[in-house]
Amino acid sequence: MSTYVSKRTAIAITTTAAAAAALSLVLVTTASADGAAPRTGQAAAALPSVSGSPEGAFTRIADFYGSYIDAVYDNDGRTADQLRSFYLSKPLQAELKKWEETNHANGVLRAQNVPTQWKVASTGSGAGKTNATVTLTWGGGDTTRIHVQADLKTKKITSITD
């Protein structure tokens, strides 16, 4: 009978060790993914993801704002200019230049500063255009919203307004 108990005990120990190893892996994976220490008593959170398609005008709006803000944040004026040239229609580029001369601010961001966060939300499509609201979050936590429109055929951004 002691042999049966020993096997049973061995199985319990093996199962417990396997469960502990799995839990450790979850906590270590979470810590390495977000750079923070493991959170005691919390299950691992889903890791963030971003997706898109080069075929969609809405995705192009999000791609532009993410890349443009990165370039401006990094003080990389050359890249910011190249992004404007690629993503924005020629008439919008000219309109923004005039807006910037009048307002002494960045026309794409509608501000003099660089936001600390951004979010692009679709507001629908119709009449050959797609529309989005870009929410910019600033260092103090304040937010501003910008309305952006892109042409479904060319995928170029054609309008940026407050």
Determine the fraction of residues in helical runs and give it as a percent range. 40-55%
CA(first)-CA(last) distance:
81 Å
Contiguous runs where pLDDT drops below 50 for at least 5 residues: 1-5, 9-34
Main sheet strand line-up? 1-2-3-4
Explain how this protein is built.
The chain contains four helices and four strands, in the order ααααββββ. The chain has 162 residues and is α+β, with helices and mostly antiparallel strands. A hairpin with a 2-residue loop joins strand 1 and strand 2. The longest helix has 33 residues, at 2-34.
Q: Which features characterize this protein?
A:
single chain, 162 residues, alpha+beta, four-stranded antiparallel sheet, 4 strands, disordered N terminus
Give the SSE map.
Elements: H1 2-34, H2 57-73, H3 77-87, H4 90-103, E1 117-126, E2 129-137, E3 143-151, E4 157-161
Antiparallel strand pairs: 1-2, 2-3, 3-4
Helix pairs in contact: 2-3
